[in-house]
Amino acid sequence: GLELLEKTDHPRKAGKIGTCLINMGSLYFSMGQNDKALEYNLKAIPYHVASGDDEMACYNYVFVASTFTQMNKYDSAQKYFVIALPLIKKLNKPAINIEYYGKTGLLHAALKEWRQAVDDYNKAYSNAVTVNDAYNQCFYLRLTAEAYYGEGSYNKAAEAALKSLAIIQSNKFEAEALRLYYPMSQIYAAKKEFANAYKYLQLWSDLVRAKNQADVK
């Protein structure tokens, strides 16, 4: 597809090439090949800038920054988040805000800047509420719980985790339940509520066992 786009004289050629490149970067990111993901996402930037598509440029900067975070290159991640921020504020679209604030939260969490992580996760969550995005609501509530746990605010961590769990259960997000139960066990252990800690550890263990059996089949 990229080879054909490069040969065309389509008036939206730049934007289409940029989108093709960023999609390839996303696939490499999903496969854990961060170097290749970064290569294609960086290649996409000038095409999105040339196309004048601020929305895609925003996503592009955020994806580059997120990949740098995954690679533990935090200064480079921060650089691209800073570049994206004026466009984020200009557009103020919930879907883009979720990506931006969620990913900046991950950067702060990687740096153990728990308070900033909580603030950004809350912004991502609020935007998810605005568009009734249940998945991202439970996802960023879980990360909020983990950030509160990181800073030692165990009661707030439990509160956020329970809110996430309610959304997970009402939507049957089993993969998210698997990701939530273990940190919930840690949170309740830190609160010295050992019955709850054991309960969620057992739920996590049951889901892991069921997933492993399904994978074997």
Write the layout of secondary structure elements.
Layout: H1 2-7, H2 13-30, H3 34-51, H4 54-70, H5 74-91, H6 94-110, H7 114-130, H8 134-151, H9 154-171, H10 174-190, H11 194-216
Helix pairs in contact: 2-3, 2-4, 3-4, 4-5, 4-6, 5-6, 6-7, 6-8, 7-8, 8-9, 8-10, 9-10, 10-11
Mean pLDDT: 95
What value does the Rg take, in angstroms?
19 Å
Number of helices: 11
> What form results from the Cα inertia axes?
globular
Please describe what this structure looks like.
Helix 7 packs antiparallel against helix 8. With about 220 residues, the protein is an all-alpha fold. The chain contains eleven helices and no strands.
Brief synopsis:
With 217 residues, the chain is an all-alpha fold.
Keywords for this structure?
single chain; 217 residues; mainly alpha; 86% helix
